């Protein structure tokens, strides 16, 4: 069995060789950004997010921390910090799921059930976080265990209004250029926009009548 450091290196290399854009943070193999596109057939499908991933020292025996840098409207994602609910990650993370275990399962279950287990319950490497875990999270939010109570309540009471709000957030915060900006750059851009809006308002009001 490979050591945690070796496993981190192998999983990160596999992720970097995939179609995902990966940007290291301070040249660390334990912290990096990944560009993630919302899944089709969901209200998030036009959104692009910059995801921060932190691998703990005990990885893969402990699940990675995952957070959205640009905003997303979702019951299981904290709107301010972008953190994904740890219970959701931990319930689906299994570092022991690999070829050996898969071989034994094949003998006992049919192909359909095996597919469900592979896609919904276990994540053998980081690529699956972006190919399975995050798409499933956006396709099937869980309002019963929310980090964003407002989003959960709206989803339960008026799904159409919830999906409209999701799309509004995608348009405002999850365009490709939003995913490419660092948190500092994003904050500066937002402040500049606010200043420009304030200046425009002042110009529209104009000088007071004598």
Mean pLDDT: 77
Unreliable stretches: 96-123, 184-194, 196-205
- Radius of gyration, Cα only, in angstroms? 20 Å
* Overall outline: globular
Number of continuous helical runs = 9
User: Strands of the largest sheet, in order across it?
Assistant: 1-2-3-4
Strand content: 5-15%
Specify the biggest β-sheet.
4 strands, antiparallel
Q: Give the end-to-end Cα distance, rounded to a whole number of Å.
A: 83 Å
Helix content: 40-55%
Order of helices and strands: HEEEEHHHHHHHH
Number of strands: 4
* Secondary structure category: alpha+beta
Structural descriptors:
alpha+beta, four-stranded antiparallel beta sheet, 9 helices
Question: Explain this structure to me?
Answer:
- The protein is 50% helix and 12% strand.
- The chain has nine helices and four strands.
- It has a four-stranded antiparallel β-sheet.
- Strand 1 (22-25) and strand 2 form a beta hairpin.
- Helix 6 packs across helix 7 (159-173).
- The longest helix has 23 residues, at 183-205.
- Mean pLDDT is 77; it is low at 96-123, 184-194 and 196-205.
Outline:
With 210 residues, the protein is an alpha+beta fold.
Question: Which helices and strands appear, and what pairs or packs with what?
Answer:
Elements: H1 4-16, E1 22-25, E2 28-37, E3 48-54, E4 65-68, H2 86-92, H3 99-108, H4 111-120, H5 126-139, H6 149-157, H7 159-173, H8 176-180, H9 183-205
Antiparallel strand pairs: 1-2, 2-3, 3-4
């Amino acid at each position: 069995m490979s050591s945690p450091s070796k496993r981190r290196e192998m999983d990160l290399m596999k992720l970097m060789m995939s179609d995902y854009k990966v940007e290291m943070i301070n040249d660390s193999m334990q912290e990096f950004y990944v560009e993630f596109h919302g899944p089709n057939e969901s209200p998030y499908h036009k959104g692009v997010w910059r995801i921060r991933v932190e691998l703990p020292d005990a990885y893969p025996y402990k699940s990675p921390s995952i957070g959205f840098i640009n905003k997303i409207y979702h019951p299981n994602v904290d709107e301010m910090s972008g953190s994904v609910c740890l219970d959701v990650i931990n319930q689906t993370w299994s570092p022991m799921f690999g070829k050996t275990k898969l071989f034994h399962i094949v003998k006992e279950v049919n192909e359909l059930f095996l597919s469900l287990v592979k896609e919904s319950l276990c994540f053998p490497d980081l690529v699956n976080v972006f190919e399975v875990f995050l798409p499933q999270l956006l396709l099937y939010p869980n309002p019963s265990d929310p980090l964003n109570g407002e989003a959960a309540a709206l989803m339960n009471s008026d799904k159409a209004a919830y999906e409209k709000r999701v799309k509004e957030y995608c348009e405002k915060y999850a365009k490709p250029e939003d995913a490419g900006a660092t948190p500092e750059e994003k904050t500066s851009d937002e402040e500049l926009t606010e200043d420009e809006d304030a200046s425009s308002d002042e110009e529209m009001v104009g000088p007071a009548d004598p």
